[in-house]
Specification:
- The complex is a heterodimer of chains A (325) and B (307).
- Chain A is mostly helical and 325 residues long.
- In chain A, helix 5 packs parallel to helix 12, helix 7 crosses helix 8 and helix 9 crosses helix 10.
- Chain B has a two-stranded antiparallel ribbon.
- In chain B, helix 3 packs parallel to helix 11.
- Chain B starts with a strand and ends in an 8-residue tail after the last helix.
- The chains are: A mainly alpha (325), B mainly alpha (307).
- Chains A and B meet through helix 1, helix 6, helix 7, helix 10 and helix 11 of A and helix 5, helix 9, helix 10 and helix 11 of B.
């Protein structure tokens, strides 16, 4: 197992390297590039541009620039400096990661807690009223764009509905804490309601449908018939024998979906001004802050790789037949 | 593929053998999927309204500041926006862009995917290994983030007009979504190349190209069509999402996504601005998904869907 882990990690490193080279080259070669706005500004002379280029190391050959950048990334975790705020990119990202993880993690745990029972009950009574209702809702949930869902919840819970006691909007439309108020846990939870629900709704739609299909397949398997034949209670047949086996394809599915999960977080963080990595990326892209963009993408890619390895481990944990060599 | 197929009823002891061609069989099964039929009608309506958008009495970028933020009424069915433009007209024009991007990006990504998947599945070995490692690498990309980075870079191109900005969005979406059809087609090619009909084709001297194009590819059409239909919907969602975030179609050209971005700014003053563009995205994608669902059932000879 540990050998497998080491091998997977070693395989992931060249992938990240290739990705970093491609992204770096893309940012430097593309017609836009870090200095595009300065170049178009009539108030900046050629001489000043040259000074800027030298200061940013842009006058050196591409591979030298990449080498320097990568050496800093590997040796000291230094992702360069933001072009806008002049702060270290690594610091800006580490500030935001906990916020993203809080949002995504909460939504994810809730999603699993909802999607598995919903999928299981649907599969247990296929084509029943419950199943039909759930299938219709989840089908709609898969088709609705997450950003529109977010905007509509703001419209309903912030603009239209008021708190009957205070007359203020029922739920806050964005941010992590109320402006100027003390940072309490209650306030934080209050601000999490809308973004977490939106992510949850979107994800539950996907995973409950997927889990329903996985469960339907498992419920027809021979070992489930055996479990019934030996006289086990239907409850334990469904919720112990079948459920456990249906969870496994879900693990693989989730591992493949991690890029989509981060994409969802980017939308939700942008809509609800949640100070996470996605929002940071969006702000940086608007301001053409290329070092920040590169940094966030690299960190994201690394997180995706780590999550994929974790999913493999989890798979082995859930299915004793799986042995990695 | 044989010319004639027995309908499934005959295998269950039904004495009257009804003979249907494969395409009529597919259509018969598709017809049973009521939501899919309804969705085709709805989608045709959306397409027709996008095509006929020039018939509107307003122009999509015609500003009328004295008439801004009008709620929906008989003269402005979906109201007017911050610059007094007719939202109904803009929604219709927005549909042209979203549908164009959805269709062309999907065509392109399916084309790349089919070529990669076919080569990998058919030749196997080193070809397969290299192509699939590249596919895996693309699959582990934070796609949306790369999309945003690339469109940010390309937006700085000098002399960027509407056509090239639409083209960029199409290319970028296609380049980051060909991996799913590629995997699917590879799997199909892997199993189909082991069938006897492939061997038969080879034994009469058919070359690799002929076997792939004339013998294996036609058998993967149903898979590819279902996948393609579903990915039109996701391409539309991605395009609108990019435009909403400000990295897709740039204003004043209307697109469903960038209309939502404006709407968010004025959520308190003009809540209706938010409703219609999003509703159009939703109706379009849910119809396409229903059609994909119907196609999947229709193509699957074992499907026993009743409702």
């Amino acid at each position: 197992m540990s050998i497998y882990l080491i091998r997977r990690t070693l395989q992931a490193i060249p992938l990240l390297f290739v990705l970093s080279i491609l992204l770096f080259a893309l940012v430097r070669i593309a017609p836009g590039g870090p200095l595009s706005q300065a170049e178009r500004n009539p108030n900046i002379s050629q001489a000043q541009l040259q000074v800027l280029r030298t200061r940013m190391g842009l006058d050196q050959p591409l591979y030298v620039q990449y080498g320097k950048w990568m050496r800093n990334v590997v040796l000291s975790g230094d992702l360069g400096e933001s072009l806008k705020s002049n702060r270290p990119v690594a610091e800006m990202i580490t500030e935001r990661i906990p916020n993203t993880l809080l949002l995504v993690g909460t939504a994810f745990v809730l999603t699993i807690l909802l999607a598995i029972p919903i999928g299981a009950i649907s599969a247990k009574r296929p084509y029943s009223f419950f199943d039909y209702t759930i299938t219709t809702i989840t089908f709609a949930g898969q088709s609705v764009p997450i950003y529109w869902l977010g905007l509509m919840t703001i419209l309903i819970f912030y603009v239209w509905l008021d708190n009957p006691l205070t007359g203020a909007p029922l739920l806050p439309a964005g941010g992590m804490y109320s402006l100027g108020a003390e940072r309490t846990l209650q306030d934080l939870l209050w601000h999490m309601v809308l973004p977490v629900s939106v992510l949850c709704l979107a994800w539950v739609a996907w995973y409950s449908r997927f889990f329903r299909a996985a469960m339907l397949e498992v419920l027809n398997a021979d070992y489930v018939r055996t479990a019934r034949a030996k006289g086990l209670a239907e409850r334990s047949v469904t919720y112990v024998h079948a459920l456990r086996n249906a969870v496994m394809p879900l693990v693989t599915m989730i591992a493949l979906d991690i890029p989509t999960i981060f994409a969802g977080a980017l939308f939700v963080e942008t809509i609800f001004s949640w100070p996470g990595m996605g929002r940071l990326f969006w702000e940086a892209a608007r301001g053409r802050d290329y070092p920040v963009l590169l940094g966030v993408i690299l960190i994201n890619a690394a997180l995706i790789v780590v999550a994929n390895i974790l999913a493999d481990l989890l798979y082995a944990l859930l299915d004793p037949r799986v042995r990695y060599e | 593929m044989s010319e004639l197929t027995l309908s499934p009823g005959t295998t269950h002891g039904n004495r009257e053998a009804v003979i249907h061609s494969p395409s009529s069989l597919i259509w018969r099964r598709f017809r049973q999927h009521r939501m899919a039929l309804f969705s085709i009608a709805l989608l045709l309506l959306v397409i027709l309204s996008a095509l006929l958008s020039p018939l509107s009495v307003y122009a999509p970028t015609e500003q009328n500041p004295s008439n801004s933020f009008q709620p929906p009424s008989a003269t402005h069915w979906f109201g007017t926006d911050d610059l007094g433009r007719d939202v109904f007209t803009r929604v219709l024009y927005g549909g042209r862009i979203s549908l164009t991007v959805g269709l062309t990006a999907t065509l392109l990504s399916v084309l790349i995917g089919v070529v990669v998947g076919a080569l990998a599945g058919y030749f196997g070995g080193l070809t397969d290994n290299v192509l699939m490692r590249i596919t895996d690498a693309f699959l582990s990309l934070p796609t949306l983030f790369v999309l945003i980075l690339v469109s940010t870079l390309l937006r700085d191109l000098p002399a960027l007009n509407l056509r090239s900005s639409v083209l960029i969005v199409i290319l970028v979406i296609a380049l980051l979504s060909w991996m799913w059809p590629a995997r699917l087609v590879r799997g199909a090619f892997l199993s189909l190349k082991a069938h006897d009909f492939t061997l038969a084709a080879r034994s009469v001297g058919a070359g690799h190209g002929r076997i792939m194009l004339r013998h294996i590819l036609p058998n993967t059409i149903s898979l590819v069509m279902v996948q393609a239909t579903l990915s039109i919907a996701s391409a539309i969602i991605v395009e609108s999402g990019l435009s909403y975030l400000g990295f897709g179609i740039q204003p004043p050209t209307p697109s469903w996504g960038n209309m939502l971005a404006t709407a968010q700014t004025y959520v308190l003053r003009a809540p209706w601005l938010m409703v219609f563009p999003g509703l159009m995205i939703f109706l379009t994608t849910i119809s396409i998904n229903h059609i994909g669902d119907g196609l999947r059932d229709a193509f699957d000879p074992f499907s026993v869907r009743i409702n």
